[in-house]
Amino acid sequence: MDVLTPEIRGPRPPATAATTAREKAADLWRLLRPQQWVKNVFVVPIGMLGVTAWNTAALDLAWALALFIAGSSAVYVVNDIIDRDADRLHPVKRSRPVASGRVPVSAAVVLAVALLAGVGLLMALRPIVDSWPVVAYLLLNVGYSFGLKRIAVLDIAIVAGGFALRYLQGSIAAEGEPSVLLAASVFAACMMFAAGKRRHEIGLADTRHRSALAGYSVPFLDQLIGLAAVTTLLTYALHVNEIFSPGASGVFVLLSAVLVAGLVVRYLQLVLVKRQGGDPSKDIASDRVTIVVGIVTGVCLVVGTVLP
């Protein structure tokens, strides 16, 4: 064929039923936001700190993880249904399955109901009182979805509170002793992450997708990020002082405090210097320094818990 002669193509073959089914299944899977499950994997296991019988606690931890994965996915689906019009104004969120119209609202509702049914079945496996953190999480997010997300500061406080509840769920499941100081440190750290995300969103050309942004400014968020960072370090240091005991375990626990301080400083650098923060999970997972220091911190915490 002459190179100057355009290639003649026939009409594109219609999508088969199998292809369409796969695409719909893929969109339903995206609606669950599996990339966000890593948050549960990182936070829920913190509840195992201080637990000595790890062989039995591991099964309890798996239950707590499944509970919060199903619960958080249900919340994501409900949020996508309610926020579909606002999401269409966002440069990234407009491509979400419900906002783009690829998943009908009716299908999303069925998926949310199925996930909530799964939460109920998981709760039935243990005494109902053991599941109070996930129930509190769901109730908080009902309020968030139906109006509280429009109130500046309260919106990120609810998000951060959800992570403190994840920690408490892991601790209760593993039959450990929840630490108020550690829960406060988790809450403060997540306030810092959420404030960093709002700081990034203020810089977007169109902020109509999130009405709470009207209650924020960059200087205010910088102060809030700093306050949350200091609170994270202070409460964690007090927690270390609470659990410290002389010996090899104490050395690793003290080292974890130094490493946590390094992680906080690194996150501040990512947000305030490198202008990141729009997706805390992605930013942290793609930063080599954070990954290495985070792994070493986790090892120190585990060793400090296991050693006498």
From TrEMBL:
Q: Which organism is it from?
A: Myceligenerans xiligouense
| GO CC terms | plasma membrane
Name of this chain's protein: 4-hydroxybenzoate polyprenyltransferase
In the bilayer, the protein is annotated as: Multi-pass membrane protein
InterPro entries registered for this protein in UniProt = Prenyltransferase, UbiA_prenyltransferase, UbiA_sf
Q: What is the lineage of its organism?
A: Bacteria, Bacillati, Actinomycetota, Actinomycetes, Micrococcales
Q: Where are the transmembrane segments?
A: 37-55, 61-82, 103-125, 180-196, 216-237, 243-268, 289-307
Q: Which CDD domains match?
A: PT_UbiA_2
GO-annotated molecular function: transferase activity, transferring alkyl or aryl (other than methyl) groups
Biological processes per GO annotation: glycolipid biosynthetic process
Localisation: Membrane
Its primary localisation, in coarse terms, equals membrane
Keywords of the record, alphabetical order, are: Membrane, Transferase, Transmembrane, Transmembrane helix
Query: Transferase: is it a keyword of this entry?
Result: yes
